[in-house]
């Protein structure tokens, strides 16, 4: 098994070199072929997904799989349309490969260019959601990166069908290298690739806290991702409560099984008695279980119609539910809310509801998260909604890429120095030439016979 996966990785690594130089027209043609393949084979995808869902439902009844994972697994006709739209959105994005980031004249006739380039071979390991495959493959293809995928065993049939359709479609386009996209299907293969830092340039895990931490702790390969999605909404004393009701409801209920859904609601004590009963009624009607601190519990326990009010424990503040469960805490000030967020949060996405312009700025400056929302739902933290076409994941890292990561997170850069026989020796000694180090408004393609795009 180890030898077989190593052969796949080596093949993909070799193909990544060729893919890095494929022109924009060829890449876009491959993307369109991929989108068309999904559209032409909807029944095949849905049939494969139905097998996975039936198996997953059995595992859920045995307590071996959560409802959140089952929800993420399901593919509908509208989800396939979303996959297709996502690929076509990537076609419309500008090809970032070969773009000149900066240009500097070192001396007359000696020019240095910083040029964007693909990272190389990227390993993407995810749980459940089959729509990750077209999202990530399309972004990697457009950015010139080869990719090796591993989906969760619960989505085995769905992933295999979608991957095979996309791979065959992409490789059918003249100029596209074979082997740039590979699929793993066993847990053993994942453990094997963790030691392949000689070939794999970046790992992007998407899954549970324990899953991501396992990846981070067991490889030398750089890992881009987030371990938790503990997101907060803070309702300030200066909030417009009409906005607050809608934003809080959307943040929790619109799709609770994802990492950008609200897990903790923080409410200023001056508006708590007015805000919480109405808000709790809406949550209750939607089936949300509310785990309250002592103050919020004392407000809500007197309301007869509420069906699911519990007392919160210390563990609740650091729990990602991915379900219709919400912890609620009353705070004395915005400063207390910020301290709570920075202490218990995951640096993912946090929101404030306020009309106070000074608090908007302070919250934005002081909350240490990759996305900060002002009077808007946490659910907007998404690569597609951020205009990236799609996303490879959401990163809480503070290096390379942060927040919803699109193609910009799949790029690095190289330096290209263009000269005419210059020697370092000419810049040493008493008669040395001097560097000008002057910024210039030129592109690498301006001085090369062919463009780097």
TrEMBL record:
Its EC number is 1.2.1.41. GO terms for cellular component: cytoplasm. The keyword Amino-acid biosynthesis applies. Pfam families: Aldedh. GO terms for biological process: L-proline biosynthetic process. Its main location: cytoplasm. It is found in: Cytoplasm. Catalyzes the NADPH-dependent reduction of L-glutamate 5-phosphate into L-glutamate 5-semialdehyde and phosphate. The product spontaneously undergoes cyclization to form 1-pyrroline-5-carboxylate. This is Gamma-glutamyl phosphate reductase.
């Amino acid at each position: 098994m180890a030898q077989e996966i190593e052969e796949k990785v080596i093949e993909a690594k070799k193909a990544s070199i060729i893919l890095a130089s494929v022109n924009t027209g060829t890449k876009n043609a491959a993307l369109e072929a991929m989108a068309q393949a999904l559209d032409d084979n909807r029944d095949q995808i849905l049939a494969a997904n139905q097998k996975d869902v039936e198996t997953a439902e059995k595992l859920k009844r045995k307590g071996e799989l959560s409802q959140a994972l089952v929800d993420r697994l399901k593919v509908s006709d509208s989800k396939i349309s979303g996959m297709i739209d996502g690929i076509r959105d990537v076609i419309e994005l500008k090809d970032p490969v070969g773009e000149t980031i900066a240009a500097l004249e070192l001396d007359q006739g000696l020019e240095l260019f910083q040029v964007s380039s693909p990272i190389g071979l990227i390993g993407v390991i995810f749980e459940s959601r089959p729509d990750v495959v077209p999202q990530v493959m399309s972004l990697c293809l457009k950015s010139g990166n080869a990719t090796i995928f591993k989906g969760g065993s619960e989505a085995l049939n769905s992933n295999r069908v979608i991957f095979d359709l996309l791979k065959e479609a992409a490789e059918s386009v003249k100029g596209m290298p074979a082997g740039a996209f590979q699929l793993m299907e066993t847990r053993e293969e994942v453990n094997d690739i963790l030691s392949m830092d000689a070939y794999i340039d970046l790992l992007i895990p998407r899954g549970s806290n324990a899953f991501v931490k396992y990846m981070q702790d067991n490889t030398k390969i750089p890992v881009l991702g987030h371990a938790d999605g503990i997101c907060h909404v803070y309702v300030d004393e200066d909030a417009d409560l009409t906005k607050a009701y809608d934003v809080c409801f959307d943040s929790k209920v619109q799709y609770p099984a994802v990492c950008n859904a609200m897990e903790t609601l923080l409410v200023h004590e001056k508006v708590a008695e007015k805000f919480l009963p109405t808000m709790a009624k809406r949550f209750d009607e939607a089936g949300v279980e509310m785990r309250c601190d002592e103050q919020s519990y004392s407000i809500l326990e007197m309301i007869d119609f509420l069906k699911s009010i519990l007392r919160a424990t210390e563990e609740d503040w650091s729990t990602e539910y991915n379900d219709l469960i919400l912890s609620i805490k009353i705070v004395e000030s915005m400063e207390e809310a910020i301290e709570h967020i920075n202490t218990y949060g995951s640096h993912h996405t946090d929101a404030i509801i306020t009309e106070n312009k000074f608090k908007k700025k302070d919250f934005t400056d002081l909350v240490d998260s990759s996305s900060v929302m002002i009077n808007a739902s946490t659910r907007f933290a998404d690569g597609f909604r951020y205009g990236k076409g799609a996303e490879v994941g959401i990163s809480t890292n503070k290096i390379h890429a942060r927040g919803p990561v699109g193609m910009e997170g799949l790029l690095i850069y190289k330096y290209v120095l263009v000269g005419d026989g210059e020697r370092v020796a000419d810049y040493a000694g008493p008669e040395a030439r001097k560097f000008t180090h002057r910024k210039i408004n030129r592109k690498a393609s301006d001085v090369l016979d062919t463009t780097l795009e």
